[in-house]
TrEMBL record:
Domain called Prephenate/arogenate dehydrogenase: residue spans: 18-276
Official protein name in the record: Prephenate/arogenate dehydrogenase domain-containing protein
Entry keyword annotation includes Transmembrane helix: no
InterPro entries from the UniProt entry: NAD(P)-bd_dom_sf, PDH_N, Prephen_DH, TYRAAT1/2, TYRAAT2_C
High-level lineage: Eukaryota, Viridiplantae, Streptophyta, Embryophyta, Tracheophyta
Amino acid sequence: MSSSSSSSSSSSLLPQPLKVGIVGFGTFGQFLAKTMIKQGHTIRATSRTDHSHLCHQLGVSFFRDALSFLEADNDVILISTSILSLSEVLRSMPLHCLNRRTLFVDVLSVKEHPRNVLLQVLPEVMDVLCTHPMFGPESGKNGWKDLPFVYEKVRVRDEPRCSSFLQIFESEGCRMVEMSCEEHDKLAARSQFLSHAIGRILSEMGIESTSMNTKSFETLVKLKESTTNDSFDLFSGLFIHNRFAQQELMNLEHSFEMVKQRLRKRTGEEQNLSKV
Ligand code: NAP
């Protein structure tokens, strides 16, 4: 893993204008598009849902038809579909019709799965960059400075184009972290999946803010809110398509059992003492 500081001299340069086609124009695709538009890039989008009205307001060209989208001369095609639908979405696109070498970038919150799917479905001449911006519309609403951007150059031959794309995030001050997809998934199962799982458990318990919150309890309420703001599809994807998540769920269950056992043991000891 290597990390390059956001304060490098190149980070203050404005990114080269790129033509970026976004596949999956949901919450996260829209969020990324707004910053790219602000930076002067040309954005096109295609999605299952008709987002043409919103796209018109944002100055984004919306394509209902995947073929016209692919023929729109994109420098970069950015995949921002749900983790669960990625394979179906890509396999339904006429990718063989692409008439120019394009950089494919995914922003999914798991990394081995999109890397494998992209390498399977794309013509060999296409470049592949797997990324995970580790922030979203809530955590990134006041800017992206110092927020981590994880990436692996899986198959990159056109380095200048890839650098121009990465510059979108560098120039916003992101902390750029180069890491293999496997390493990402290992770490994300321990951090992101775990926090989402605990947030979902707290939501099942129906925890709510009270008039006597401690700081720790406020943290739990915030965790519940931030994780349940994301779709259940996203949470399911973090589990189903990260091979390290199953182990973390078992660790969570085991640790919960251990804590219960210790409490029961201690309760027994206290009861015995009170009988003496
Ligand atoms: P999401 O629920 O993970 O994905 C929503 C997107 O997937 C929408 O564009 C939706 O299309 C598309 N989609 C869902 N099911 C589909 C299907 N069956 N067929 C075709 N398209 C389908 O929510 P999200 O927050 O927008 O996340 C998008 C991606 O970004 C995910 O892979 C997520 O892991 C990643 N990501 C999200 C965040 C975040 O904070 N939200 C942060 C980093 C990375 P329509 O809009 O057309 O319905």
